[in-house]
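Hi R.,

As promised on Friday, here is the backbone we talked about, encoded as structure tokens. Could you run it through your design pipeline when you get a chance and send me back a sequence?
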């Protein structure tokens, strides 16, 4: 019967989830050269191994010193498709239907492909759909498959964190007043029943995001955007209820500002971004080391995601690399941040055994 099918699926999923539990995974994605930005065909990425290694070459150095290897759970080459990017993420997305919380982050400097991974390119076809849409499509698909056994309700929230202030991007939908607290739970929760509903909401969210911003691209690269998908499932046999949520987080650009540029508003933005990204690193690190004190309160980002970082929640971070020579400095600092996050996970996994 379909109920037994669900039980069997749950068992399989449970095993996959056990693999992921408590761990953070870090995947690295190198974006291709864009037309007109060929850097004379030269790339800072020298080699990508199937074992999760990536070798970076310093264009200004010679010999052995010029090369450095970083290791992750996986490294995707420039020709990886959106479909390939999503495949390994699927078990994590599916676990949300079983009551788990999960976070997927996109990290990297502006222009490295964060939005491409999470949403897709500006002109999208189904083939170039990003993680957001694929995740939603999956959630709706599976909840339909299980409809005989479990009744699911899906709802979404969209917020933006800019200069340590949380803005509800779906606020107009229910005419809610200003977002009072700091938590995602305070933001508008909009029920959805198909992928198209969500696409429509995201358009509204994007529009709201642009309000007050001089240039949308500028603004969006300096704010974190969080799309949260809540799932509530009622077991039709036992009547028990489970709840899970998935946060899809397109982080602000991780680039450091030039000293000469760092004045006024720009400096303030940069400080807020630095603060929240390092707070995120600190929280992940504290969780992995099983510290008594997890410093969630050091930034709005970590506060907002508190319930979904740590405990039984699962975290996945896509770090993005721009292979152009002039991005070398940022590439190294991105990889160092990511490796810090990733190696912590490996250490923690070892000590669990
Ligand atoms: P970010 O969100 O990090 O600022 P974007 O996602 O906007 O970066 O990517 C910058 C540009 O590069 C966009 O024009 C985007 O379409 C393109 N791009 C990024 N990643 C890829 C990819 N994997 N394949 C093709 N084009 C990409």
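Update: got your reply. Pasting your designed sequence below so it's all in one thread:
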């Amino acid at each position: 019967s379909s109920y037994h099918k669900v039980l069997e699926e749950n068992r399989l999923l449970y095993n996959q989830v056990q693999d992921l539990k408590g761990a953070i995974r870090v995947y690295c994605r190198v974006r291709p050269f864009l037309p007109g930005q060929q850097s004379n065909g030269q790339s800072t990425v020298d080699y990508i191994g199937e074992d999760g290694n990536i070798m970076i070459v310093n264009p200004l150095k010679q010999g052995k010193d010029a090369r450095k290897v970083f290791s992750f759970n996986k490294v995707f080459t420039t020709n990886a498709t959106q479909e390939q990017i999503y495949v390994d993420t699927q078990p994590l997305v599916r676990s949300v239907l079983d009551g788990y919380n999960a976070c997927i982050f996109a990290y990297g400097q502006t222009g490295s492909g964060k939005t491409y991974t999470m949403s897709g390119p500006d002109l999208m076809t189904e083939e170039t759909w990003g993680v957001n849409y694929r995740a939603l499509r999956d959630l709706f698909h599976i909840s339909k498959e299980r409809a005989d056994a479990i009744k699911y309700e899906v709802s979404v929230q969209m917020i933006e964190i800019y200069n340590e202030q949380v803005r509800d991007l779906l606020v107009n939908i229910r005419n809610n007043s200003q977002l009072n607290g700091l938590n995602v739970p305070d933001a508008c929760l909009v029920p959805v029943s198909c992928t198209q509903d969500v696409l429509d909401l995201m358009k509204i969210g994007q529009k709201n995001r642009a309000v007050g911003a001089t240039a949308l691209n500028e603004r969006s690269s300096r704010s974190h955007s969080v799309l949260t998908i809540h799932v509530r499932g009622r077991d039709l046999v036992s009547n028990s209820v489970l709840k899970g949520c998935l946060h899809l987080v397109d982080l602000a650009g991780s680039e450091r500002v030039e000293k000469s540029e760092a004045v006024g508003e720009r400096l303030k933005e940069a400080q807020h971004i630095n603060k929240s990204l390092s707070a995120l690193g600190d929280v992940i690190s504290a969780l992995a080391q099983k510290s008594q004190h997890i410093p969630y309160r050091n930034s709005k980002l970590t506060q907002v995601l508190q319930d979904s970082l740590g405990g039984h929640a699962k975290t996945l971070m896509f770090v993005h690399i721009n292979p152009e020579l002039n991005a070398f400095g940022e590439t190294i600092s991105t990889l160092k941040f990511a490796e810090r996050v990733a190696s912590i996970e490996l250490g923690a996994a070892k000590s669990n055994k």
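One thing I noticed while checking it: The radius of gyration is 20 Å.

Thanks again,
M.
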